[in-house]
Specification:
Layout lengths: L1 E6 L6 H10 L5 E5 L22 H7 L5 H8 L1 E2 L6 E3 L13 H9 L5 E8 L6 H6 L3 E6 L3 H10 L9 E7 L7 H8 L3 E5 L3 H9 L11 H15 L2 H7 L1
Parallel strand pairs: 1-5, 1-6, 2-4, 2-5, 6-7, 7-8
Antiparallel strand pairs: 3-4
This protein binds adenosine-5'-triphosphate and magnesium ion.
């Protein structure tokens, strides 16, 4: 299964949310950082010491000789026991032009022994990542709850029509000030769930802070575990339609 995570401008939290979800995913999950604006995982989670050869450009080079599935298996790394398997993003935005996004999407989607969670960063229909989003089984729109975030997300959602499979919304740090149900209604996307305001746990993912014993019991990690089950099943409407 291939799930793309996208955001609109003004809604920080995509990278943190994808890493948190993948770390508690009930099946094998691999995070691919594919933000066309450039990657943060190597400098953030990896604190600048991300293993050589474990990046998206390395995978792209491999795909000249083998499938993206084999390349992903070879290149993705688990930085520490609490971390998901992951591939760090582009070193510079101009590298996005050489990534065969559509091919990667199609090949990631066919992987059966792992779910691929792709951090696409801010979505623009003119970015190459739009082709990857279009081949996804599910598209998760990550939004904040401020007026600025919600307005930007409401403008983004229609751009995703007919792209990818099931589409749904995850609200990070709800109730600041708008609640998640209200946001989903105004954006016209089914609500998949929320992730709480938890700066301490978020710092583990965004800045490579130490994950002490408290971490697995943190609000972010516990909520992410419940949300991961929802994402695997698809939005409520899709589940209803399938049953
Ligand atoms: N649930 C959360 N609770 C508290 N802080 C959070 C949460 N999620 C993310 N943050 C914080 O928000 C900041 C931005 O997070 P992150 O890097 O994940 O956003 P992003 O959307 O990927 O940003 P960019 O557009 O730069 O790639 C980080 O400092 C991170 O720790
Ligand atoms: Mg990011």
């Amino acid at each position: 299964m291939l799930i793309s995570f996208v955001s609109a401008k003004g809604s920080p939290g995509v990278t943190t949310s994808v890493l948190a979800l993948a770390s508690v995913w009930p099946r094998t999950a691999v995070v691919v950082e594919a933000d066309p604006a450039g990657g943060d995982v190597a400098a953030g989670l990896g604190r600048g010491a991300w293993p050589a050869g474990a990046g998206l450009t390395d995978l792209v080079v491999d795909t000249r000789a083998c499938g993206a599935d084999d390349a992903l298996r070879r290149r993705a790394v688990r930085l520490a026991p609490h971390c998901p398997l992951a591939l760090a993003g582009l070193g510079a935005p101009q590298q996005a032009a050489v990534v065969p996004w559509e091919r990667l999407g199609n090949e990631f989607r066919r992987i059966t022994d792992a779910d691929v969670l792709v951090d696409c960063g801010r979505f623009s229909p003119s970015d190459g990542t739009a082709a990857l989003v279009a081949s996804s089984d599910g598209v998760v729109v990550v939004s904040g709850s401020s007026l600025r975030s919600v307005r930007a997300t409401a403008r983004l959602v229609p751009l995703l029509d007919d792209r990818g499979g099931h589409r749904g919304l995850v609200v990070v740090r709800p109730d600041r000030p708008y609640d998640a149900v209200e946001i989903a209604e105004s954006c016209g996307a089914p609500l998949l769930g929320t992730l709480p305001d938890d700066a301490r746990a978020a710092g583990v993912w965004s800045d490579g802070h130490a994950a002490g014993r408290w971490f697995v019991r943190s609000a972010l990690q516990r909520t992410a575990a419940a949300l991961a089950h929802v994402l695997i099943s698809g939005p409520p409407a899709a589940r209803g339609a399938a049953s």
